[in-house]
Amino acid sequence: MRAVIAGGHGQVGLRLGALLAGRGDQPVGLIRAAGQAAELEAAGVEPLVLDLVAATSEQLVQALQGADAVVFSAGAGGRGGAEATNAIDGEGAVKLVDAATAAGVRRFVMVSVFMDAGRGKDLPDTFENYVRVKRDSDVHLPASDLDWTILRPGTLTDDAGTGRVRLGPAIAQGAVRRDDVAAVLAELLHAPGTAHQVLELTEGDTPVSDAVSAAARA
Question: Which end of the chain is more exposed for a tag (fewer CB within 10 A), N or C?
Answer without folding.
Answer: C
